[in-house]
Amino acid sequence: MTNEEFINSLPKGNPFTTPEGYFDNLTNSVMSRIEKEGKPVFRMSHYFRYVAAASCIAFVVAAGILLTNHRSNIPVIQTSDENAAYWAYNLDKTALMAAVLEIEIPEIGMEIRYTDEQNREIISFLEEQNISIENIVQNMNEE
Amino acid sequence: MNEYSDERLLEMFRDESRKYKGFSALVEQYKVRLYWFIRKIVVVHEDADDVLQNTFEKAWKGLSGFRQESALSTWLYRIATNEAVSFLNQKRHKGFELLDNPESVLSATVQDDAYFSGDQIQLQLQKAILNLPEKQRIVFNMKYFEEMKYEEMSAILNTSVGALKASYHHAVNKIKEHFERISI
User: Within this chain, do residues B124 and B163 fall inside the same structural domain, yes or no?
Assistant: First the structure.
């Protein structure tokens, strides 16, 4: 049998299948992913990403010491980069802004202080999200 | 569904107010053929879905820079091929099954794939194809299943027509040998 005869004797049909309805939902699935990708996200520097995990531990230790000592005035944490990364990942926008303004964070009753560079990065993120500083402060005062 | 020309799809995409609609039409138009092309390379449905999504994401990001030096389909197949090949390479680097010959793993996967409904001859054909070296496998799939012309394959794979013909010839020989060995 020649190669051509052999190849012509083989089945050309498609033996693979897909889950039911896969192609029906595919376009929406692709477009959702693209739209999601297109939204602005808070991108931190590589350094911040590396230290994010370590920051959890650092924060727990710091918070533990502060809470154990239980002082009457609001505790203050001067942030290291590790803590900044932790907060940036874990706090909501109101709390982030509160931290930038160096006022008490409602969720934990603590004040977090960022460095100027960290503040600029956070404010830039909040601005991209169209979050007004005035509104946040006003809301917090009302609470 | 309406079939749009490449020109029309690009025109819609370049108009900011119809960008999403244009790209959605492109996905609708190419999703099935790109999926099956990718599926035959990576075998597993879930992997094919991932690679296809990545392909469209790359296309979305790159389409504004597409210079129309080739057909849109050629450009999309090129992205799909690159994505599928790099997906398999990543699997290898991640120690996928820790085997020297990942093709043999893919070949074994076909047999257990919940989304494989072929008969014994089709199963053996897929096994034979999956045991081919990567380039030959892609060339065989393009020529045999997609029925592409060598010129288009040449543009997608950036390989000369002569080399593609040689790859296809070697692939057919090896598949034939596989069938002779198992005596089907």
Answer: yes
